[in-house]
Amino acid sequence: MRAKKILIDFLIPIAGEGGVERVLNTVSEYLNGNGFHVRIVQLISDGSRHFKSGIEVYPILMNKKVDDLSELATLYSAFLSQYGVPDIVVATSWPYLILTARRALSAFKVPCKVYSWLHGPLHEYARYGAGGIECMHLADHHLCISGHAAAILVNDDPHVSTSIAYNPVDMSAYIPQLTYHIDSRTLLYVGRLSSEKRVDIILRGIAATNQSNPDMPWRLRIIGDGDERQALLGITDELGIGDYITFVGWQKNPWEHCSDITALVLSSDYEGSPLVAVEALANGIPVMSTPVDGITELIKPGINGWLFPHDDFAALAKLLELIAVGAMPAIAPSECVLSSSPYRKDIALDNFKSALYAGLDTISVIIPCYNVEKYIRRCLDSILAQSISKAKLEIICVDDCSTDNTLSILSEYEQRYSDIFMLIPLKQNMKQGYARNVALSYSSGDYITYVDADDCIESSMLEQLYLYSKIYNCDVVECGYSMFSDDTGLPPLTSEGTIRQYTMDSIDDKRSYVLNRYWKTGPWGRLYKRSLLIDNNIVFAENVRMEDVLFSAMCMRYMHSYILLPEKYYNYYMNENGTMLGSSISQYFMNTASVQNMATDFLADCHWYDDCIKEYSYLHYTKAFEEPVWRMCLDSSLYSYENLTYLKDELLKRFPDICSNRYLTASDSDAASICRTILSNNLSKEALADVFLHTV
């Protein structure tokens, strides 16, 4: 079984050579190398290619105008039938594409999340017939390119799921300007020449200020092209400012043409989050702009730029005049560069990945705690260091009446991480089973994992377990573990073997699981679907040791699929407060046998092991008989004729033909040999004792 990635479709209407396409190129390359498989589905294509090689692009319609946008749902559904349903669909640009995705997915009974990712104001999409807020309600999660965009959605629905995902900008190619180019009095415009950009306002502002201050004229360099080019040339001639305006045309790298720029100027009626403004700041260039979406949280007037009102060339002219005469404070290029840092490629891409996860599922980490002051910080810090977004974690610690400083330490973490941390102090000691059950009742995560308080986990554990559970729609995913007898250090993470998937609908897999995996009954190192536990009322036995045996049996009964990862993401520590060392070995194994009997009764009542009786009876034998017998052999002080007779009678009562079990008869271990002797013969008390006295 090979590792798979989360499959994600970006639905786009029609591609060009603008900011959205640049962002998609950057995002797609990153995601393809970080646990995702990206497909760009170009719904309406002109046949041109605007994406980097290596990125999968699927044009659905070629050179065709679509009057009825619902037709796109039919076409996308056909695409999904041919190429498969993704895990996430991101509707880019048009709100209507959210509805398109929903309609297309309705034909498939496959779980898939639908996200929105708009790059412009919602009201403008509605005005142009591309969908409005009614479509946004159909999305599971919203990727917002600005805080303003998120606020609009939250204001409409306080319970809406949103993440801010700034557009990433590669700043490695930019060399920040070292001086403030006020003396050049040269403005730069970069972008499409279209009506909503209102470049005419910039032209009229320059004409007005140059007329008032002919000795200090401003110039404008326009980089870009579009339908409004001829109209803007006409306005330039009309205003008589042709000597001050340069139409450069489209440039692959516009920043090669701006070594003498005073400021970038934008005058749009509306924007999403102008990528060009971030790029300008990264170059140390101040930005003056109308207060469009995204700009108001990016530009701090007087610090890294200036703002002027919409559709007000007079206000722009006044601003330019004040800058020219030195009445406005000079802008430090370093402040511009600093303000662009949230958009820095590495930071923004990591945040984008986290935003994708944010729309997926949450994980509740349950930790029962008792007298673990020496270890609990190590445990909690390892969980807080997980590569998956902290916003998707819920940490629930139950203090089982600790008598050391455990509760104080937990309270400290609760105060520090109050948004994701829950502390439940019990009033009396109730043992692990009760503590875990209480924590589950308080949890809200879509997935549940259990961590022992004296253990710790590798930083990628939860992300990796979640990915496999999500991709394969798996009920339980388990990883490998390393075991330590002290806390002197950790070995490097290792990988052994191959990934193994068990499907409980397969008798062969069922038998293999019983023999190879059920022996590990501890819940740690596993990620469980919440629905598996809640829908089937799977709980731990309370007020007994080995409470996890019954829990594991119930999981085995109800789960449909299970995946074992070979990577050792879990670090298991033995300490003086552990179950084995906190009680007598004799009591420990007698208790094991008792709880194993409970688990077997449960599975027998539902006839679960009818088709794997030989495998399960052998498993029961190893847990409820062979293990305690061998312990007694290794330490004669643990030997008890009465206990041994009880274990034997209980085993034979439940599985009278265990001696003929093929797995027992084929075993050549010393333990199996001794157990066969005990089970096959009605030995006297003296003869039985002699068996143990002559054992290892």
General description of the model:
This protein is an alpha/beta fold and 696 residues long. The protein folds into four domains: 6-164, Rossmann fold (3-Layer(aba) Sandwich); 171-343, 3-Layer(aba) Sandwich (Rossmann fold); 361-582, Spore Coat Polysaccharide Biosynthesis Protein SpsA, Chain A (Alpha-Beta Complex); 583-696. Helices cover 40% and strands 17% of the residues. The protein is built from 26 helices and 22 strands. Strands 14, 15, 16, 17, 18, 19, 20, 21 and 22 form a nine-stranded mixed beta sheet that branches. Strands 3-2-1-4-5-6-7 form a seven-stranded parallel beta sheet, with helices on both faces. The protein has a six-stranded parallel beta sheet with strand order 10-9-8-11-12-13, with helices on both faces. Strand 4 (88-92), helix 3 (96-105) and strand 5 form a beta-alpha-beta unit. The protein is elongated. The two termini are 42 Å apart.
What are the defining features of this structure?
Spore Coat Polysaccharide Biosynthesis Protein SpsA, Chain A, alpha/beta, 17% strand, 696 residues, Rossmann fold, 4 domains, 26 helices
**Number of helices, where a helix is a run of at least 4 consecutive DSSP H or I residues:** 26
Rg, alpha carbons: 33 Å
CATH architecture of the largest domain: Alpha-Beta Complex
| Proportion in helices | 40-55%
Largest sheet: 9 strands, mixed
Structural class: alpha/beta
CATH hierarchy, class of the largest domain:
Alpha Beta
| Low-confidence region ranges | 578-583
CATH superfamily of the largest domain: Spore Coat Polysaccharide Biosynthesis Protein SpsA, Chain A
Percent of residues in β-strands: 15-25%
Return the CATH topology of the largest domain. Spore Coat Polysaccharide Biosynthesis Protein SpsA, Chain A
Total domain units: 4
Mean pLDDT: 85
- Intertermini distance: 42 Å
- What's the number of extended β-strand segments? 22
Note the overall shape.
Answer: elongated
